[in-house]
Amino acid sequence: MKGAVGRIYGEASSTDFSFVVFDPREVGRTDYVKVWNDVEGWVVAQIYDVKATADLNENDVLLGRNAEKEVYIAKALVIGKRDENGLLRVPKTPFVPGESVFKADSEIITSALGLESDGAYIGLLKDSEIKVNLNLNSLVQKHCCILAKTGSGKSYTSGVIVEELLERDVPLFIIDPHGEYSTMKFPNDSREEVEKMSIFKIKPKGYENKIRLYVPPNSPFVDKADGILRLDGYNLTAEEIIELTGITNPTSHALLYQAIKNLKGRNYTVEDVIAEIEEIKHNAKWSLLGHLEKILESGLFGKEATPVHLLLQNGKAVILDMRGVPPEHQDLIVSRICSRLFELRKKEEVPAGMIVIEEAHNFIPERGFGRAVSTQVLRTIASEGRKFGLGLMVISQRPARVDKNVISQCNTQIILRVTNPNDINAIKKGVEGLTADTVEEIKRLPAGTAMVVSPELERPVIVNVRIRKSRHGGVSANIVKKKQKEKPKEKRTEKDVKEKQSLLRKMFG
Question: Which of 215, 239, 374, 226 is nearest to 299 (CA)?
């Protein structure tokens, strides 16, 4: 039949079939095809394997003979067809061997996969012009994770989603350990990327009026910030002080607990704790006092804390740039702020929104991969946040090191290339609906291409992530510079040599 790309052969069921491919340049692995079913009509299937066979036996190969004809066999899994009620139906009767197979058109693919006509536009379905839009309510309220190996585009992809959420005025609080998000204030000015924008039908755009940048007091970027982050300096617990200072000496622990016990029943500051410890007659106090002085020097804790409700505002993305902040301080900052935001959201004192967590393996580590004081509150938000309208976006290049319960709570999973066996196993455990074939596909994904898994999608889909409208701040620095071409040596003539010899004789006699 005209336009067919193949024909079903061998055994065929209602859920899968194999077909001979007429031209391997026309279709390949992960492509969508359609086949006529006498009961349901046109039904969509996806190719998951393509193999080539030839009319050669072992002796032919040993004798170096060439195949007269190569045959390409594709295997496809049936997705189904939408009925008049919008329900996806898989045929009850098997497909007929000999039936022609065609490339599926955009309309039938969109319908079968359940792609949204509106939502967060993250890119195009692989090898097509079909837009992939994610359901906004599910994305925000039911949590999202972005997982990838380093260099595969996880921060770039998260920036795409942040752009989409900002355009719909979703309140965002972004935990940014490496300062990658503040550049979103400015339009994308990469010539290479701007040239590709027509493919995705977008234009450069900055979000300066929607972004608020906060930094800690000692940050080198204070002059560029919209606000300084200070935490409530009253009533730090012994556990929090130990976390901040990294004190491991048991005697120092005991002195600290005793000092705070003496202050029980009143609002105390770090200065009060220092005064109590100074009264103790023990040599171990000097090391402890040094650690406490460093907390004061950080300027992070004060009597006038930054109002937490300013960190989640309608139509704004508040970015907390923590470059230069020690990891143990970052952990406590995240714990304090997220706990307070969750409490305020439960009382409806801040708007419904989303917390974006970069380097999530540092703040919600899996058991056996370290500890963090922020783990408990982030686990709580993952399990209870949807009831109160507070979502999480969890981003990491080390999936195996992120709390598996938090990953499993994310309804939308965006997975870029991952190859580490431990990370692959973590994804298999935390993400529902992945087959052995889709896991293999994750290992082969090129940079900038993602597999998206969501209850709103009938199958995991592979997406070419769109170009960012705003400037990307996560570009790696070039350490090894290109070797400059050496200037060609000028040819020296016999006249040049004689002139130089004459000059030397005059100088040295």
Answer: 215
Q: How far apart are CA 340 and CA 355, in angstroms?
A: 12
Query: 120-229+308-465 has which CATH code?
Result: 3.40.50.300
Other Cβ atoms within 10 Å of 134 Cβ, number: 24
Residue given tokens 């970027």 in the structure block = 221
* Separation between Cα atoms, residue 184 and residue 207, nearest integer Å: 6
**Which structure tokens are listed for 190?**
């990469």
The distance from CA 35 to its chain's CA centroid, rounded to whole angstroms, is 36
* DSSP-assigned states of every residue in 133-148: EE-HHHHHHT-EEEE-
Asked, colleague to colleague, whether 4-113 and 120-229+308-465 share their fold, the answer is no
Q: For residue 356, list its beta bridge partners.
A: 174, 393
Encode 398-436: b = buried (16+ Cβ within 10 Å), e = exposed. Answer: bbbbbbeebbbbbbbbbbbbbeeeebbebbbebbeebee
* Cα–Cα nearest to 13, from 77, 60, 70, 56: 77
Q: Rounded CA gap, 237 and 243, in Å?
A: 10
Q: Quick check: 461 and 132 in contact, CB under 8 A?
A: yes
354-363 pLDDT, tens digit each: 999 999 999 9
Length of the chain measured in residues: 509
pTM of the complete model:
0.86
CATH class belonging to 4-113: mainly beta
The token pair that represents 351 in the structure block:
């708007």
Report which DSSP code applies to 14: S
Per the listing, tokens 């170009």 go with 467
Q: Three-state SS for 83?
A: coil
Q: In this predicted model, what pLDDT tens digit does every residue of 73-132 receive, in sequence order?
A: 999 999 999 988 888 999 999 999 999 999 999 999 999 999 988 899 999 999 899 999
Contact 379, 367 (CB under 8 A): no
d(CA 180, CA 213) in angstroms, rounded, equals: 12
Name the residue ranges covered by the structural domains of the chain. Answer: 4-113, 120-229+308-465, 238-301
